[in-house]
Each structure stands twice: as C-alpha cells, then as structure tokens.
Amino acid sequence: RRTLYYGLNLLIPCVLISALALLVFLLPADSGEKISLGITVLLSLTVFMLLVAEIMPATSDSVPLIAHCFQ
C-alpha cells in the first residue's frame, strides 16, 4: 500500500478537523457559537469516518488504524 496516499487523504484531514475542536476553547463563554462550532466539528468527523469506512475494503478483519483515534 502507498502510505503517502493514506497520509495525505486520510490522516491530515482527520488531524485538521480535530484541531478545529480546539477553537471552541478560544471563543468567549457567552457566545452561542461554541455550541454550533462543536456540533459542526462533530458532524464533520462523523461524515469523515463514514467516508473512510466506505473507502476501506470490506474483507478486512482488523479495524483501520484511523478508527482507533475515535474510540
């Protein structure tokens, strides 16, 4: 397998989406945008994991390494 392909197309977007979750702590406490940003990041991670599950082969007996980040 080509590791650079998986690194660029799977790991980097996962890291960037997860880094967006840290922006919640930079927003003011009385801002209503904290909840909307948190929900948006959660939905983004969910859609990303669905896409990763679709790309991975169905005959694999082991769990993909990227799935360990979300368990």
Q: Characteristics of this structure?
A:
71 residues, mainly alpha, 2 helices
Q: What topology does this entry show?
A:
Elements: H1 3-20, H2 33-55
GO molecular function: monoatomic ion channel activity; transmembrane signaling receptor activity
GO cellular component, one term: membrane
Protein name: Cholinergic receptor nicotinic alpha 7 subunit
Report on the structure:
The structure is a single chain. The protein has about 70 residues and is an all-alpha fold. The chain has one domain (about 5-55, about 60-70). The protein has helices at about 5-20, 35-55. Helix 1 (about 5-20) runs antiparallel to helix 2 (about 35-55). It starts with a helix and ends in a 16-residue tail after the last helix. The model has no long low-confidence stretch (mean pLDDT about 80). InterPro entries: Neur_channel, Neuro-gated_channel_TM_sf, Neuro_actylchol_rec, Neurotrans-gated_channel_TM. One of its GO terms (molecular function) is transmembrane signaling receptor activity. Pfam families: Neur_chan_memb. It comes from Homo sapiens. Keywords: Membrane, Transmembrane, Transmembrane helix.
